[in-house]
Amino acid sequence: MKYVILIHSNPRPWGHPTADYLPEHQVLPQEQRDRLNKDFEDGFAEVIRRGEFVHGEALAAPSSSRLFRWRDGDRVATDGPYAEGKEHFAGFFLIDVDSHERAEEIATLFAGPGETVELRPVMSDGSDGST
Amino acid sequence: MNNEFEDVWRRATPHVLGALARRHDNFADCEDAVQLALVAAAEQWPREGLPDNPTGWLIRVAGRRLIDLVRTDVSRRSREERTTRLTDAVATAASESTVADDTLLLLILCAHPALTPSSQAALMLRAVAGLTTREIAMGFFVPEATMAQRISRAKASLRDAGGRFQSPPRSELPARLHAVRHAVALLYTQAHSLGEPSRSPGRTPDSLLPGIALRLSRELHRLAPTDPENAGLLALLLLTQARAPARLDPAGELVPLEDQDRRLWNREYISEGIALIEKALPTGYVGSFQLQAAIAAVHAEGASTASTDWEQILVLYEMLEQVDPTPAATLGRAVATAEAIGPAAGLAILAELPESSHRRHAAAGHMLSRLGRRDEARSEFLRAAELTRSIPEQRYLNRLGTQAI
């Protein structure tokens, strides 16, 4: 079953890995930051080793995006992002795992200080969708 | 690649792998050697024509590759001794005809409990069905690199768990056959549940996987015919596959069972499936696959939903819930109850299912609309559409939910 792990973040300046640019992460003692990074790297190495990692991309800064809308009966394009956005979509990982529990286990790896992580099942993933 | 050659080596693969694996403990080495031999065949056969004895040819080439691999592997210790032993073994293997045993042993090895279900299925596709990593990746809709990692990881787990190419102890055999059946069933649903013909132009793994799953379950039944669950699995796949031509309309929309054009059902598969299950049911223990097949058989026998014997289906679902209590069995019992007794009784059973199950809400929608509770029915359909992960199903449910029923 396939899942997308969506990383919502608002690092300033925009950069990846997002954790390095987040104030919540920066205030932690170096030792704890190192441990969090290592936990993630070890966990994700296992994901790759098991053949569960399908695809992932880090996204460029939201200020580089263009928004497309419908206004007054016509299509209009404006520069992004939504000004009110506290968090922006920063990147995604596509995984293919044997169970929902495993997907949650992997998504947990991504949740660090200042990060919001969303786990979404993919439609037409080949499973029968029953829970 | 020429289909004629492809079919030859797909059929030869379990024999070639079996011949190697019986003499050499490391399954991963044997599997690599077979893949190398298939690559050699893909290069040479189209140019030089099919050899007189293709299986013998493949065993010979794979044997040489295996020796190369082992030489590299054990170059520092007892190299000469092991390679000599192996050369003799492979030379005699070509003359033996143990295809049947090999296929069964390979299936059992691939269904090793140390592997996840999808890894078990992927290994079977390579080891027993002779698919390339690329074809398997297409069947599972993942990139080739991902599938390659998954397969090499599976082989490593097999090695770590001491997976050997030999019959497991008799006491373990029923459990292992059970795992084999589940992996074969997974192969079938993997492609079947996607159900979008637009994704399968021509002979892609979408259309290939159900055929392979059917072939493997046929093989399993032939090799261990005394296990009634093997007959049950084969019957279930035949009866399900029989309905495939009527499952989607020309626009790719899902057609529910009650609206399917039964003239499109494959009669040959249906009679074969029914004969199998009628013979299997009275012979021994009654397992999950036999009961599911028996339910599919009752559906196939009815000329329409109205003339379907719902009382019998209800009894079968009650038995299924005893043998193998799953949400799917409870759902089946709810639907059969609604038909045999009444929609209100069916609704009461649906309440036992998890709130997050889209099937629960879809079934509730149908039952509520039969009770004339249209608003509730519509919201159940829309809730089901939100929860499903199948696009054709979502389109179908949204249509029901937005229509005035």
Automatic annotation (TrEMBL), chain A:
Listed SUPFAM superfamilies: Dimeric alpha+beta barrel
InterPro entries named among the record's database cross-references: Dimeric_a/b-barrel, YCII
Transmembrane portions of the chain: none
YCII-related domain sequence ranges: 1-107
Family designation: Belongs to the YciI family.
Name of the molecule in the record: YCII-related domain-containing protein
Organism whose genome encodes this protein: Stackebrandtia endophytica
UniProtKB/TrEMBL annotation, chain B:
Keywords, sorted A to Z: Sigma factor, Transcription, Transcription regulation
Domain of life: Bacteria
Presence of the UniProt keyword Transcription in the record: yes
InterPro entries assigned: DUF6596, RNA_pol_sigma70_r2, RNA_pol_sigma70_r4_t2, RNA_pol_sigma_r2, RNA_pol_sigma_r3/r4-like, WH-like_DNA-bd_sf
Any one GO MF annotation of this record: sigma factor activity
GO biological process: DNA-templated transcription initiation
A matching Pfam family: DUF6596
Domain RNA polymerase sigma-70 region: 11-72
Listed SUPFAM superfamilies: Sigma2 domain of RNA polymerase sigma factors, Sigma3 and sigma4 domains of RNA polymerase sigma factors
TM stretches of this protein: none
UniProt-listed PANTHER family: BLL6612 PROTEIN, BLL6612 PROTEIN-RELATED
Protein name per the record: RNA polymerase ECF family sigma subunit
Organism: Stackebrandtia endophytica
Record lineage: Bacteria, Bacillati, Actinomycetota, Actinomycetes, Glycomycetales
